[in-house]
Amino acid sequence: MSSVTLILKFAQSMPQLWGEFQNRHTRGAKTVDLHLHGKRALICGASRGLGYGCAEALAREGVAVTLVARRQEDLDQARAKIEALGSAPVQIVAADIATAEGRAAALAVCPTPDILVTNAGGPKPGDFRNFTREDWIAALDANMLSAIDLIKSTIDAMIAARFGRIVNITSGAVKSPIGVLGLSNGARAGLTGFVGGLAREVAAHNVTINNLLPGQFDTERLKTTHAAAAAARGMETDAYRKAAIGMIPARRFGDPAEFGAACAFLCSAQTGFITGQNILLDGGQFPGLL
């Protein structure tokens, strides 16, 4: 077939191609298919902030999501927003994922997820000299041991299915520790070390484990943290936040929706060769290369 004939055939097909594009755009079709439709996800800390961002992004991909958080009211609101997308089923579990009872409740509703997103609020800041043994145990339970227990409870089913994606929401402090966050630094670094070994043991089964390390994202927790930091310095909160933005090369705080998009990408069928990684999302604030 000559090049002229090819050009003529392409020109004749243009109205049909354009019409199909318009139809797909109207339906909200995506240009990149992550091949997650019909998968099941268990997402912790999912009623607000970064956890919610992950839940919404996965739901948009057709993933049936189970949201876990402590407050029923927040969960109800999160479910309503995700259900309004009309993309996938939504279940909710009001439970404290840092407790054995909370994890059992979550797994009773979603026992064999294809995707697991672990997430728990960070422990209190302070001088390490003032931390008690109970403080350390609570930090380990919330930010290390709960994630490990959830992985232990779900990973064998993922291996059997030859598909699994585990994403742990940790902290930019894992890469660049913050002095007053000793409890968080220690617990999250422990989880990072554990994941580094396990990820390589299960990679051959198309099960990946990665960590997302958030910097300063515009969440309620960040606002609370900034307000406390500003008060400690005798500053107005707005002035403190402006100064904080000035330290970020992107000159803004992160949007939880873009964090969720990164999570969804890591959970996709196309990322089976990415595992055991610590991916920093901080607008360029960390100054190092590695």
Distance between the termini: 52 Å
* Overall pLDDT level: 89
**Helix and strand element order:** HEHEHEHEHEHEHHHE
Cα-atom Rg, whole angstroms? 21 Å
- Secondary-structure-based class equals alpha/beta
Report the count of strand segments: 7
- Number of helices, counting only DSSP H or I runs of 4 residues or more: 9
Instruction: Detail the poorly predicted runs.
Output: 2-14, 17-22
Question: What is the oligomeric state here?
Answer: single chain
Give the DSSP E fraction (strand runs of 2 or more residues). 5-15%
With strands numbered from the N-terminus, the spatial order across the biggest sheet is 3-2-1-4-5-6-7
What does this structure look like?
The protein has 290 residues and is an alpha/beta fold. Helices cover 49% and strands 13% of the residues. The protein contains 9 helices and 7 strands, in the order H-E-H-E-H-E-H-E-H-E-H-E-H-H-H-E. It has helices spanning 3-26, 49-60, 72-83, 100-109, 133-161, 182-202, 220-232, 237-246, 256-266; strands spanning 40-44, 64-69, 90-94, 115-118, 164-169, 207-214, 278-281. It has a 7-stranded parallel sheet, sandwiched between helices. Strand 5, helix 6 (182-202) and strand 6 (207-214) form a beta-alpha-beta unit.
